[in-house]
Amino acid sequence: MDMALWLSLVGFVFAMSYTPGPNNLMVMSSSALFGVRRTLPHWLGMNVGFNVMLVAAVFGLGELVLRFPVALVVVKAGGSLWLAWMAWQYAVAALNPLPAAARSAGQTRTRPFRTYEAALFQWVNPKAMMMSVSAAGAYVALADTAPERAAIMVGTFLCFGAPAGLAWMFAGGTLKRFMGDPRWARILNAAIAGIILLTIALILLG
Q1: Which listed residue, of 53, 148, 159, 177, carries a Cα 20 to 30 Å from 3's Cα?
Q2: Is residue 89 within a helix (H) or strand (E), and if so which, with residue range?
Q3: Is the pLDDT score of 105 beyond 70?
Q4: By the 8 A CB rule, do 175 and 39 touch?
Q5: Which of 178, 180, 12, 47 is nearest to 105 (CA)?
Q6: How far is CA 85 from CA 26, 34, 119, 187, 193, in A?
Q7: Per residue in 153-190, pLDDT tens?
Q8: Beta strands in the chain (DSSP E)
Q9: Which range among 57-66, 87-96, 99-108 shows the weakest confidence by mean pLDDT?
C-alpha cells in the first residue's frame, strides 16, 4: 500500500466527514429531538449504507450506471418520493406540535430514522454519492486489486469517518434539554424537513 496516498485518503475522509452535510445535520437534529440512544440506529445505518455504496463504487458502480441510466432515474424518483413523505411528517410536527402534557409523557409526532432507512438514504444522498465515487476514482492506486482497495477504503472511512457522525450526534444530544420548550421542537422539526427538502432538490437537479 502506498502510505503517502493513504495519508491523503485520511485527509480526504476527515475533510468530507466532519463538514456539514445531510447526514451530519440530520443525526444532530435527530439526537436533539429524540436523544442519542434512539438516534444510534440512524448513525449505524448511515455508516452501513455509505460503505456498501463505497464498495460498489470501487467495483465499478459508475460503469453500471452508464450502461443502465434508467436505473439511476428510478432510484432518484423513488428516493425523492420517500424523502418527500419523511419531510412532510417533520413539517406537520413543526406546524402542529403536541400539547405540553403529551410532550412531557414522551410522545412525538415524528420518529428517528430506522437503520435500514438511514442506509437506503445514502443511495440518494448527493454528498455520500460524491464521496464514494470520488474516493474510488482518486485512490485507485492504493492497492493492485479491487477487493484490497475496498477493504482499505472501508477500514479508513470506519476509523476516521464514522466518529464524525458520533460527534455531530452527541452535539445534538446536548441540545435535548431545550426540547421542553415547544419552540425548539418546532425549529428542529422544521430544520430536518428543510434538510430533507434540500436533499431532494439536489437529487433532482443532479
Answers
A1: 53
A2: helix 69-95
A3: no
A4: no
A5: 180
A6: 16, 19, 17, 19, 10
A7: 999 999 999 999 999 999 888 877 666 667 777 777 78
A8: none
A9: 99-108
Residue 72 to residues 110, 134, 184, Cα–Cα distance (Å): 29, 18, 37
pLDDT attached to residue 47: 95
Query: Hey, what's the cell of 53?
Result: 455504496
The Cα angle at residue 26 between residues 136 and 186, in degrees rounded to 5: 165
Q: At what angle do helices 126-138 and 182-205 cross, to 10 degrees?
A: 50
State which amino acid sits at residue 30. S
Domain count along the chain:
1
9's grid cell: 485518503
Identify which of 131, 112, 122 has the alpha carbon closest to the alpha carbon of residue 37.
112
**Which residues, including other chains, have CB under 8 Å from residue 35's CB and lie 6 or more apart?**
173, 176
Q: Which whole-number Å values give the CA distances from 181 to 88, 89, 104, 185, in the listed order?
A: 22, 20, 11, 7
Which residue range(s) make up the domain with 12?
3-205
